[in-house]
């Protein structure tokens, strides 16, 4: 069986690499990149695929590209290709979505044969008529993907880490505003990741001036990832729950025996163990208050037991080691997806 996979590589994280590695480990499976334009050019390699596996195909890249994507979906269906689509987000992070963008998302649902979900609540965000297409696969863990775990120096202060691309929809301004209410000797926040623009970088620097916030405005390299993780007590991820369903960063944290502060999104809702701090909110005012409450709870917990988050992280590591293993995902793909 030949699988054309989209996208074939990603600079943001290793999710794509891991799924492709799992597919290639299955006997009789060949995987190569799916390039929509090459398919439209009648590339023999593209047309030779039995299966087309799509991730983030709904991302809005402008009117012309969205129209081309819809046409590609129609052509794939007409030519009898099996279309597999992985649902990563509740909706596009850009709230100003166009009618054509929404049409693209609905076209993906309509034309695909299987919708892979990584959190069980995802079915509630799909139109009811498409729920029958869903197959649940746990999000793969990242154990060992970024080297060995690193230990941290002892400290009485609570060390928080935000890790990932620095973009406005990730509520970083709210995080800075919340964390800066503590004395630097009590709470320290590190924000590590490449900013979307120099303008946004300047905004954040001005907002955090003189506060207990450290910035590392650069792409975190693979060989540096475990060091960043090792130097924190908790990852803090103030997601927008109107758009976020899954979090690879949460799974990354657990894969390196770290725990998190995070809204109650699908990824954490599926977990059996609950050794993390979570919350819900309805608007930005509630979000600020809820996040502040969880950081305060974390400072109290650490003051009572300096090892508590190391212990929590180990419990969550044990769970994703078992429940989110590559072998388990491979088995599900063989038995349910590529049958």
Automatic annotation (TrEMBL):
GO terms for molecular function: glycosyltransferase activity. Residues 152-238 form the Glycosyl transferase family domain. InterPro entries: Glyco_trans_1. It comes from the Bacteria. The keyword Oxidoreductase does not apply. Keywords: Transferase. Gene3D superfamilies: Glycogen Phosphorylase B. This is Glycosyltransferase. It comes from Pedobacter kyonggii. The lineage of its organism: Bacteria, Pseudomonadati, Bacteroidota, Sphingobacteriia, Sphingobacteriales.
């Amino acid at each position: 069986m030949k699988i054309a996979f989209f996208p074939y590589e990603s600079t943001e994280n290793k999710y794509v690499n891991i799924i492709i590695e799992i597919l290639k480990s299955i006997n009789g499976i060949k995987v190569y990149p799916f390039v929509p334009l090459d398919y439209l050019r009648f590339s023999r390699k593209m047309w030779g695929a039995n299966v087309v596996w799509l991730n983030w195909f709904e991302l809005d890249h402008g009117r012309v590209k969205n129209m081309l994507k819809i046409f590609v979906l129609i052509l794939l269906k007409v030519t009898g290709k099996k279309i597999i689509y992985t649902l990563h987000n509740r909706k596009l992070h850009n709230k100003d979505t166009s009618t054509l963008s929404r049409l693209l998302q609905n076209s993906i649902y309509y034309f695909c044969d299987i919708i892979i979900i990584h959190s069980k609540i995802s079915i509630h965000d799909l139109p009811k008529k498409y729920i029958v297409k869903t197959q649940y696969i746990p999000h793969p863990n990242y154990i060992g993907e970024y080297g060995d775990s690193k230990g941290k120096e002892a400290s009485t202060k609570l060390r928080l880490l935000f890790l990932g691309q620095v973009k406005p929809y990730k509520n970083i301004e709210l995080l800075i505003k919340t964390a800066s209410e503590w004395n630097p000797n009590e709470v320290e926040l590190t924000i590590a990741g490449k900013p979307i623009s120099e303008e946004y970088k300047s905004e954040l620097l001005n907002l955090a001036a003189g506060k207990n916030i450290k910035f590392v405005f650069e792409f975190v390299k693979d060989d540096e990832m475990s060091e960043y993780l090792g130097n924190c007590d908790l990852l803090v991820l103030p997601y927008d729950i109107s758009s976020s369903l899954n979090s690879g960063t949460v799974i990354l944290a657990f894969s390196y025996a770290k725990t998190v502060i995070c809204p109650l999104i699908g990824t954490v809702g599926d977990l059996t163990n609950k050794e993390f701090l979570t919350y819900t909110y309805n608007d930005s005012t509630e979000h600020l208050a809820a996040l502040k409450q969880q950081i305060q709870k974390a400072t109290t917990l650490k003051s009572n037991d300096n090892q508590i988050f190391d212990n929590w992280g180990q419990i969550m590591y044990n769970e994703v080691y078992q429940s989110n293993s590559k072998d388990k995902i491979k088995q599900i793909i063989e038995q349910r997806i590529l049958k």
